[in-house]
Amino acid sequence: MMLRIEGAGENALMVYFGAETSPALSAQVQQAARLMEALLGPHLVDMVPSYASLLVIFDGFSCDHLQVRRLIRTTLEPALTQPETQAHACSRVVELPVWYGTEAGPDLEALSVRAGLTPEAVIDIHQSGEYRVYAIGFAPGFAYLGQVDERIAAPRLATPRLKVPRGAVAIADRQTAVYPAVSPGGWNLIGLCPTRMFNPDQEPVMPVSVGDVVRFHAISRDEFLARGGELP
Question: Which residues, at least 6 apart from 68, have a Cβ–Cβ distance to it below 8 Å?
């Protein structure tokens, strides 16, 4: 394999692994992150994995672009092709509860009509899938999860809402997500999740990380409230 490496600041490099979005490529990004952490050790400041890239931020006082590029070319690239490295690309599975329904998800009915399915069928399809955390962005704790079954994929709303409630479970194209805080948003809302997706007072601050696999399961309104969920 041949990685593409570009400068991203005086003490950062962006490493590109490919152009497509896939679980295999995401797993490769995670492997690279673990390897870079071991290779750079105390010289590593931070890393930001995404769909098909890895931002590596290093200590500019102890190493430079040339040294880190050489490390990626001579050590990281060959290591990523080793079967023993690929074998460790296991993903943590995170279960998230969802109160589905038109009360919790105001776009569920319209999405089901668009798909030619009943709301119950949309719910069953959504909670039967496994979704890889491809990236975290937009807001702290906002995890982009994919891929959504083509039958229930839906474009973003033509007019975004000014206020989406915290915990809203949503679909946009072939991605799904849980809104970590009240914010504007244009995704299709189908339910509510009581789990806090970002809490700076807890450790870890997020229940998911890039590379994890998320599974959703349906709960009732009463269970949603009992688990600390808040009505919009």
Answer: 13, 40, 56, 58
d(CA 29, CA 52): 7
Tell me if 170 sits within 8 A of 154, measured CB to CB: no
Provide the angle, in degrees to the nearest 10, between the axes of the packed helices 108-115 and 119-128.
Answer: 90
The rounded percent of the chain whose pLDDT value lies above 90 is 59
Which among 192, 222, 182, 181 has a CA at the least distance from the CA of 102?
192
pLDDT digits over 27-53, tens only?
A: 788 888 888 888 888 999 988 888 788
Tens digits of per-residue pLDDT, 65-86? Answer: 998 998 888 888 787 776 544 4
pTM: 0.76
pLDDT digits (tens, 9 = 90+) for 188-221: 999 999 999 999 988 889 999 888 999 999 999 9
CATH topology of domain 4-86: Gyrase A; domain 2 (3.30.1360)
- Ranges of beta strands (E only) in the chain are 4-7, 12-16, 44-49, 53-58, 93-100, 131-136, 143-146, 161-164, 168-172, 175-178, 183-185, 188-192, 213-218
Domain limits of the chain? 4-86, 93-226
**Architecture of the domain whose range is 93-226:** Beta Barrel (2.40)
Q: Are 217 and 103 in contact (CB under 8 A)?
A: no
Nearest residue to 28 (alpha-carbon basis) of 184, 132, 147, 160 = 132
Whether residue 148 contacts residue 126, with contact meaning beta carbons closer than 8 Å, is answered with yes
